[in-house]
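Example 3.
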Amino acid sequence: MEALLAARALLENATPLKGDCGRVCGAACCEPDEDGKGGMLLFPGEEGLYDPLPEGFEITPAPDLPGALLLTCSGTCRREDRPLSCRLFPLLPKEKDGVIRAVRDRRGYIVCPLLPDGLSAFDPGFRACVVRAGEILYADPDHRAFLTALHAAISALKEAL
Ligand code: SF4
Ligand code: SF4
């Protein structure tokens, strides 16, 4: 929980662009699906921060990542209620050869207009916060295992396309 809280705090105010990137796209990543819901994976233990659940939220097993939980929302939330996945989006920390980097989250290509422009499209301060959050998360065995499984699932998705 300590690692999770530290990562969430790092990304409390850091955002992909210096301004509000939601103005670029009408906050496409918060847009609910045809059932009126949007969903983001919870990091291990994060469900404990949603008890009691804020109005409009629901927690269900994640269909694509065994053992993980999905937080669904109604398309709006209070800033402090955003789960870590939303705070990191559309980047993710990834470890390779002992080095943590910020990488683009391939799952976001269908919604986020910033992703095709490469990492240089993002505010350097935001990228640095994603890396720092990654260093904290990868140092914790549960979060390391979660991120490793998540990146494997994303790679499998890429190969299936
Ligand atoms: S889809 Fe991309 S540009 Fe739009 S609000 Fe989300 S992160 Fe920002
Ligand atoms: S939890 Fe909040 S930031 Fe995340 S998708 Fe829902 S409305 Fe958007």
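The pocket of iron/sulfur cluster (ligand 1) is lined by residues 16, 21-22, 24-25, 27-29, 89-90, 111-114 (CB under 6 Å). The chain has one domain: 2-160.
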